[in-house]
Sequence to fold (281 residues):
Amino acid sequence: ILTNDKLCPFKQLQAKHNIPDSLCFSYLQIQSWLRKQKPPPALEPLTPPQQERHLSILEALCTQGKPPSKPVSFLYHDIIHKLNSAKPKFTLVWELDFQQELDEQQWSKIFKANRKLTLCTTHIEVSRKVLYQWHLVPTSLQRFNPHKSDLCWRCQAYPGMVYHVWWTCAKIIPFWTQISNLIRDITQIDLPMQPERYLLHLLPLGIPKSAQYLMYHVLISALQAISKNWLSSHPLTLASCIKAIETTRKYKIMARKAGPQAHLGETAWNSWNIFYSRVEK
Ligand SMILES: [Zn+2]
Fold:
């Protein structure tokens, strides 16, 4: 039944050996078994390997789930201004710190959150400064002044690099744990202790919008607390964050009366209000 290691077609076998139609299923079983015996031949790549190349703007547009608004204008803008599709340097630095590569969609989500998160300029300022790594840390200050210590001002044990100061310093870890607990308290959701979630606001999929809204405000208040206590070795407290979030809520209520977008957070604050009234007692 084999010719050159290939199974003869059923019709051909029928004609040659007088096989009834009823045995067609048995033939297919044999065919399926034979296929499983040898690995499928390796597929020739259609194009040369392109692991190193990042997607162009057009490719990213075609492959990402949801197209941006006004895609034609977006493409024209790209053509006219010849936007560079290579990843910006600060994204590569973050990826090096996180020891993982974030894909185009994840970065696009981070940028979108950074752009649309809030209307408050102070909040925008702090989240952008963190994203673009604008804060001057001891290691960068030492480059300007070699007499300065490059050690982290909090723990005095490790070089004060951006990632250390914001995330891995032994003195900052308890603060992030408190923030994680606060998020759990008010949203009943465990936000994984991953730096891209807390520092860049890349929230996991499937979180309800109202919980996302509160998480963003908690995370921004945390970044703000660290930023305000820059170069201070006093341990950060959750109380200042809670106060800052409550102040934000009050401003949002005021803004609700003035702007059309403010109603988005109206119901989201319900669980915060319950938490805050409990804490205040
Ligand atoms: Zn440290």
Confidence is low (pLDDT under 50) at residues 43-50. The chain has two domains: 2-36, 89-134+165-280. Residues 2-36 form one domain. Residues 206 and 212 are 10 Å apart (CA to CA).
